[in-house]
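Appendix B, example 12.
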Amino acid sequence: MIIVTGGAGFIGSCLHAALKARGERVVIVDHLRDNGKWRNIAKHAPDDIITPERLFAFLENAGKVKAVFHLGAISSTTARDGDLVWSTNVALSNALFRWCAEHDTRLIYASSAATYGAADRPELFSDAPERLSKLRPLNLYGWSKHVFDQHVFSAIAEGRPVPQQWVGLKFFNVYGPNEYHKGNMISVVKVKYDEIVRGGPARLFRSDRPDLADGAQARDFIWVGDTVEVMLWCYDHPQVSGLFNCGTGTARTYLDLAHAVCDAAGKPRNIEFVDMPESLRGQYQSYTCADMRRLREAGYDKPFTTLEDGITRYVRDYLATPDSYL
């Protein structure tokens, strides 16, 4: 079997659908609770769902596990409960890493571009291992992802057992179907679409930097289908291990994004700028752009979806339809 932690979540459910399309037996580790996450997997029933608390008891009698895709985490950039974030994002990840090493199981896990903190130039988004100690995340979530990355490299440096394949993927700004349960962590694409279909303008934060124009804040926005392609490629190439960026390698402005949403929805380009909330000031990444050279050098050669094409697909095939789920 294949195990997908966070398999009922956004990226996890899209990966789960792709694995089921391949005929794989998939067990999801997640909490469904009452926020509609079950709809993310309604069209692709998993072979089983277990809660994270039962994971290691389940693994005792699970038989052969081919691979674990570890995508489950507390992913809110505004999370404040340090004990909960540590136990979920670090301690559980470490325990799963050790289990995979002991049971000859491959591990592909989610890191995050939030580990880059206030980086604001292309050269600062290098995923080279020697750069790891220089990163300074801005928030608890990013820090927790960074700590686990460091723990992985410490295990390697100290000669401790590691999984036969291990891959960490630093996801940049992912958008696409099945993100609807994410509350205030939903993608900007979905937020802007909702604003304009209600008849209002697409609202963007004013820049909090004097050297940056309003709307010129730029991020590396990646279509969720591209993240799935990267994960499947890693799974299909068990000889590849390492920590890699998972973006497009292109930074696009929020103004570009808002225009693309308006165009895809067939609405006028009506943009309004609003002040950034005080809670985000000093923690807001005004620029992200994945350095994709190491993943390319490892052999990944598929093209990435452009922002305009991805947004058009998201709006046309999902958001503007009666059933917006993958």
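The first strand starts at residue 2 and ends at 5. The two ends are 22 Å apart (CA to CA).
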